[in-house]
Amino acid sequence: MREYSAASVQELRRSRRAWLFVTPVLLALAIVIGYPVARAVWMSFHQDPGLDPATGMFVDGGSAGISNYTHWLLQQCHTATGETVACPTGTLGSQFWAAVGVTLFFTVVTVALELALGLGMAVVMGKTFRGRALLRAAVLIPWAIPTAVTARLWEFMFQFDGVINRVLGTELLWTADPWSARFAVIVADVWKTTPFMALLLLAGLQMIPADVYEAARVDGASAWQRFTQITLPLLKPALLVAVLFRTMDALRMYDLPAILTSGNPSTQTVSILVVEQVRQGPYSAAALSTITFVLIFAVAFMLVKVLGANAVRTQEEQRRAG
Predict the structure, then answer these.
(1) pTM
(2) Residue 57 pLDDT more than 70?
(3) Nearest 5°: phi and psi at 85?
(4) Residue 24 pLDDT more than 70?
């Protein structure tokens, strides 16, 4: 009979106790996340109910195979006789990759601008001066405003007779022209979400010991040298977390462009396309939702693998240096 040491028995009990606490959480996640995902995948392989072209009767949709996926990924549509053809320009089937491009464009531009501006705001808020608490509270106001309200505020400002045209002395239809509409979305999103980035980076700055800056100042390091040689390296883990959070949030962008530009096709993100398709066919929309889920999951996985490894490596280097 196999004998266990006292340490092994204690470790086994500790492991069982840990699973006892973790199991309810795993069950809740399986119900809240696992079932909807599995249901959407199952629906994505079925056809939407509609009229039978042969009889003119309303029938339930049967098995669709991978036709829903080819409809979106390969831009293939099906005629009434079942023939596969390329989706006409302007249909939802031909808009998927355009929506992906718009989503990635918004993600890259907004995250880059918010990172640069948020870092500057965090450095300023991290200094000691009179009124610092008031400044920190005021900076968080844009982030605290609901996104729908933010979209309406900027919509009024970007109107033809709005504040933006009056200040700049222009007569532009900001939300109608493709590139000006994208510019309006970027400005509104950066204005709203930069405080969130600054808050995350400020928390990272608070973790840097003041003694490090004092030692560098005594050694004659300039302000730029202290920023590049001390602040940025020690802030790298917080920077990576902030970029990861904001990237995941930007990939799901929906309400800001939907409300601000009132359905302008040039600002149509993947989330907007999913909502539009849900109103037309739930099963085809399930395929689009599944593709969107896989896309966001793949980006998140790559960011976690790359940025997470860099963060761990940076922490190990700091521990070794200390």
Answers:
(1) 0.79
(2) no
(3) -135, 165
(4) yes
CA distances in angstroms from 184 to 53, 71, 172, listed in the order given? 45, 31, 12
- Measuring CA to CA, which residue among 58, 78, 54 is closest to residue 66? 78
Q: What is the dihedral of CA 214, 220, 223, 225, to 10 degrees?
A: -100
Rounded to 5 degrees, φ, ψ at 78 are -125, 135
State which H helix or E strand residue 84 sits in.
Answer: strand 84-86
Same domain, 104 and 84: no
Q: What are phi and psi of 234, to 5 degrees?
A: -75, -20
**Of the ranges 72-76, 177-181, 291-295, 313-317, which one carries the lowest mean pLDDT score?**
313-317
- Co-location of 123 and 244 in the same domain: yes
Coil, strand or helix at 136: helix
- pLDDT tens digits, residue range 276-321? 888 877 788 888 888 888 888 888 888 877 766 555 555 555 555 5
pLDDT digits (tens, 9 = 90+) for 97-119: 888 899 999 999 999 999 999 99
Here the tokens at position 108 are: 């890259």
| Domain CATH for 137 | 1.10.3720.10
- Overall residue count recorded for the chain in this entry: 322
Instruction: Note whether 117 and 108 are within 8 A (CB).
Output: no
Same domain as 124, residue 4:
no
Q: Are residues 107 and 227 in the same domain?
A: yes
Are residues 26 and 125 located together in one domain of the fold? no
Q: Are residues 164 and 218 in the same domain?
A: yes
Residue 1: the pLDDT is 43
**How far apart (Å, rounded) are the C-alpha atoms in residues 303 and 207?**
24
Domain count across the chain: 3
**Residue 241 shares a structural domain with residue 286:** yes
Tell me: do 114 and 26 sit in the same domain.
Answer: no
3-state SS class at 63: strand
Q: Which of 94, 125, 155 is the last residue of a domain?
A: 94
